[in-house]
Structures
1.
Amino acid sequence: MKRYILVCIVFISFAAMAQEKKITWDYPVKPDMEEWKKCNSPEEIYQALQIPEKVLTGIDTKSLVQLCLDYPAPTVFYIFNTPQQGFEEFYDQFNGIRELMKRKDAGIQLLNKYVEMSMDDFNFLWSLEAQGKFVEKFYCMELFLAQPTIVKSFGEQERRILLEESIRKYEMKRAREDLFGGLNPGASIWVMARMLYAENKLKLDNADSLDSGMLTGFDATSLYQQVKSYIR
């Protein structure tokens, strides 16, 4: 009987260890590697950066969020007419973001990561390339959060947290316009607009601007003040 109990304990311990084993993965090619230079086209790079299927289906969502943010190829987000078009191109070229958008816990994991992101992690001694990559992650994160599937996954409490955090990120970007220029502050406004619209607190004459992320016809300052008043 004692031996039976001991065998059961050992079996349960091994089962627990198997469940706790975390799948880890990193991109096999990066810009500073010789293998990267051997790629003859963007398509070859995109193919080399695909996550293997066994990893893709087994990796936890938190790690998958980080992999999407750490995508080493030059981003396509800034070369399209609208932020949404940039996201859709990234979605087409990378299996990691396609998998993330299917996960039921994608919204909460993205929100958790968004809350963690801070200028405290910025280092002025980094190279200009590293600084640019750091800044770009804020823009990428907000594009992910603004996607309809993610917006729909949030309850009222999560939307409220996201509104509060997007206010903080917007204020941070405005305080550091030397780093966060161009479309970056607008991505924070897009997230705010999406959340207000989900709360039925935003009236639109043309929903196309909300879908595209360009927010033409929106007064960013007015929307910012509206969100601040709403979250009080």
Note: The two ends are 63 Å apart (CA to CA).
2.
Amino acid sequence: MNFRTTRARLAAATIGAAVAGTLALGASPASAAASDGYLSGSGYTYDDWDDEGTLSSSSYAKSNATCLWQKILWAEGAIEKDGTKYDTADIDGHFGSNTTHATKNLQKRWGLSADGLVGKKTFTKAGDKLKDSKLVDINSQRKYRLRYDGAQSDFFVYRSSSGKYSLYVDGAYRYANYKSRTCS
């Protein structure tokens, strides 16, 4: 191999590496999905719930993700089937007819289609109410603490360094996962 060939290959390799590095830095983070197992986020915390899975009476109906949604219904003062406000006793991780009714009520108030499904538009509207991101130590782990700013009440959610959201319910921190229910 002569000097010119080696120099040309090195130049091409350097340019290729620079382009690959630029693409890697500019690529947007992967979207969250129910298949990830958790409500999750990355980057800016205020747009984290724009790409989550759909919650409903037939989709992830018994899960900690539903507990988080029910906590949102409580914070917003959504109206349940009997005409009263959604309360903490209703936060059980089961997306039943009462949660469906309260979801439709909240969707109407938010100017969304009242279909009772917590999908992209509903999660986006809820995510817009996340405020005051702050790093805190919980159980020897650094997490972002965000305040959900509800119409009736506020509460905190926490995002781990791996992006998983959790909430404090039933005396413990619980991940907002789609596949199991540990809140009651």
Note: The first helix runs from residue 3 to 26.
3.
Amino acid sequence: MSTRGMMSSSASSGAAPGPSNTLNIQGSQIAPDLRSMAIASGWDQASKLFVNITAPYINRLVVSQSFPAGIEITIGANTIVSSDGSSAALTASVPVSVRNLGQVLASGGNGGYGGLITVFYQSQAVSGYGGAGGAGAGFAPGSLAYSSTGGGGASGSSQTYTGPTFPGDVPATARGGDGGGGGGHGQAGLSGFPGSASGTYTSSSSSPPGGVGSPSNAVTGNSYITWLATGTRTGAIT
């Protein structure tokens, strides 16, 4: 049986304090500051630090500060460590041992926006604007709102010419392209669609759909990590 003492990132009642070398993270966090949390909970800054994460969600786990005797992190079986796309799901720049019993998942890339199109009928213009791309899998920016799949792209807008027309002409309609869907974990987003035109028009101009978003890494700084258990890791490991 382990003789490590236990402490929690949230206050607990009815228990006497033990040796301060273990930090329990039970509540979901955005980029938790492991060193500051451990110090606030009584870590002596000299012992090896053990971090047990049982929170449902961690949006970006970063190990970058000083842990003189080392740090060992256990990611629980029901924990998802992912990203909002601003960095990897797990980043290490100092030596750390990781026991992953849960999931370390790269974010997905955002989808590209749809193309704009403008059509002209007798010098009168109507335009259709492209829809936004869908968000990639993972967390919304700076939040704990999580999706396991990429979101769908928004529909493009349309506009129909309403002025007078020559006999036999069909009023022109410009329809912007739909946005592309967001990518799944570790996948790029999908391209948006070009705009389209219908009816009678004398000329048109358009802009292409926007570029797709790239996924984050699952892990950055893998050379610093000793994997005690790899668990589920989806996305690039660098």
Note: The longest helix spans residues 34-40.
4.
Amino acid sequence: MIERIDVGTRMSRIVKHNGVAYLCGQVGDGATVTEQTKDCLSRVESLLAKAGSSPEQMLQVVIWLADMADFAEMNAVWDAWVPEGHAPARACGEAKLARKELKVEIIVTAAC
């Protein structure tokens, strides 16, 4: 069975199937990579809770940065946030994001 949560015309914010939650890409507010990453991860936490999951249950994370020069700044926030001993499989790359002010987007897959 597939369960869709917060369904819109273009996408669902969460899709659950066979004990796995797939979150839509999350971006955050703020002027800096640090601010945007913190806000983004807060949104990820909220969606994981809504899906019946948590950061400890993350399986895979894909992070897109508008500029790889921001890699260390983003990782400083990430490293402080990710639960010790529960780091997911992760990839990070550079991409042109949906709006010019966006600096980071995070996509999460988690067990639920």
Note: The mean pLDDT is 98.
